[in-house]
Design a protein that fits this description.
Blueprint lengths: L11 H20 L13 H14 L6 H12 L2 H23 L1 H10 L7 H16 L2 H18 L4 H18 L4 H10 L3 H28 L13 H15 L4 H19 L4 H13 L2 H20 L1 H12 L3 H19 L2 H19 L3 H16 L6 H10 L3 H4 L4 H15 L7
């Protein structure tokens, strides 16, 4: 197949999206904020991408409308895109049912009942890591744990911003590594790799950052008084499905089987525990799948826009810029990191950032001989770093709203995100494989 000529004009749709979405976000967040609303979530990302797709269709008059529709259909119909959409549906059903059954609260309370008061801060970090890995959502983890963290902060002399930042850091660790999070699903399916392979690469980067974070928090704990923890009610049986799902996912069981088993276990155990009924279980599963609709629509729109941009020569234009500055495999990897980070800063959504950057990253990987599992890891890790740091992202805004502090106050205490950035950069610098 002939190589497309670089065409910077082909990138106009994504530029239009960024101007609309980022511009409206800045306006409603900082210039004309709306009470009780997050500025970057006032304009629907679906609307912004819809307008961008219209712009893409208006370009390149050499192709007919039907030819452009066919190009979009090929992009949407890619095996990995279809699988990703199916996994989103199942992950939504699992998340909705688990939440309704009370699994997250029981898991968090179980762990809180184990940790000693002296080490409540590092303990909260570890709990956030595990809960987020099991739930597959950083925002969900923050929603569960920040109220508890805020109550603990009031009882002892620990700055609210620090204890909340600790929870956010743990939530981003788990989101980055969870095999059922939408970021992992997007990163792996767009690159056509197994989740367990991406996990192995990610773990080598994330674990050192997490261990150093724990060490810092332990030292801090020794220098401060112990907390007196309240009694937290839990049902160990409701926590069990999360741990089973986590273990089965880590050993490499097919994600559809993992999620299917998790749904069955929560249906069975939640019913036996009396936390859900037959009707409420199906309602929760419906609500969970519905919560994934926007992500799925965005995936479809971005797949269409990407297919058209690639056809018009947009990807070649980006590759030309990267070729100019990146002369090696490491340079290509830094290019993927920068591209994903830029998309996340612009969209304030790590899943959307991955979906946008993924097809271009795949082209960069082919150019610089970067393995797909490394590309998936770079996409997921980069997006989680930036999403966990920007003060206007959902994670910090939700945490700040619950704790009744400013999201900017939390930023200096995001130890894990800063350390993960360092570990990711080091992992690229020490990379040994040379391009063929």
């Amino acid at each position: 197949m002939a190589t497309k000529k670089p065409n910077g004009k082909a990138l106009l749709p994504i530029l239009i999206f960024l101007v609309l979405y980022l511009g409206s976000g800045i306006y409603f967040e900082y210039i004309n904020p709306k009470k009780g609303q997050m500025g970057f979530y006032i304009m629907s990302v679906v609307v912004a991408f819809g307008i961008a797709l219209i712009v893409a269709f208006l370009q390149n008059r050499k192709l007919t409308f039907n030819q452009k529709v066919h190009i979009c259909a090929q992009g949407i119909g890619d095996d990995n895109i279809v699988i990703m959409l199916f996994i989103f549906l199942m992950a939504g059903a699992f998340s909705g049912l688990a939440s309704e059954a009370g699994g997250a609260e029981s898991t968090a309370n179980l762990m809180l009942s184990i940790i000693p008061g002296k080490f409540v801060v590092p303990g909260l970090f570890v709990i956030a890591c595990l809960i987020s890995m099991a739930m597959g959502t950083s925002v969900g983890t923050i929603t569960v744990l920040v109220p508890i963290a805020a109550a603990i902060s009031h009882s002892i002399q620990i700055p609210m911003a620090m204890i909340v930042g600790t929870v956010v850091g743990g939530a981003m660790f788990g989101d980055n590594l969870s095999v059922i999070s939408d970021t992992t699903i997007a990163a792996t399916r767009t690159q056509g790799v197994e989740m367990k392979d991406k996990f192995k690469v990610n773990f080598k980067i994330a674990l050192p950052a997490a261990l150093i974070t724990i060490a810092i928090l332990v030292v801090y704990s020794f220098r401060n008084p112990a907390a007196t923890l309240d009694h937290y009610d839990f049902n160990i049986w409701l926590a069990l499905p999360y741990f089973i799902v986590l273990i089965l996912a880590l050993v490499g069981l097919n994600v559809f089987l993992v999620l299917g088993l998790g749904i069955f276990l929560f249906f069975l155990i939640g019913g036996a525990a009396g936390t859900i009924s037959f009707s409420s279980a199906f309602l929760a599963m419906g609500d969970g799948t519905s919560s994934m609709f926007e992500t799925m629509i965005v995936t479809i729109l971005v797949a269409s826009i990407s297919a058209l941009m690639k056809e018009y020569g947009g990807f070649e234009a980006i590759l030309a810029v990267i070729r100019k500055h990146a002369k090696s495999r490491k340079g290509g990897m830094f290019g993927i990191l920068a591209l994903t980070g830029l998309m996340d800063v612009a969209t304030a959504n790590n899943t959307v950032a991955i979906v946008i950057a993924a097809p271009i990253a795949k082209e960069i990987a082919g150019e610089y001989d970067v393995e797909p599992k490394k590309v998936a890891s770079l996409l997921d890790t980069s997006s989680c770093i930036f999403q966990g740091l920007i003060p206007y992202g959902a994670q910090l805004l939700v945490a700040a709203g619950i704790a009744k502090i400013s999201s900017v106050q939390i930023m200096p205490f995001l130890f894990y995100q800063f350390l993960l950035t360092i570990c990711l950069i080091i992992s690229i610098l020490v990379d040994k494989k040379k391009a063929e």
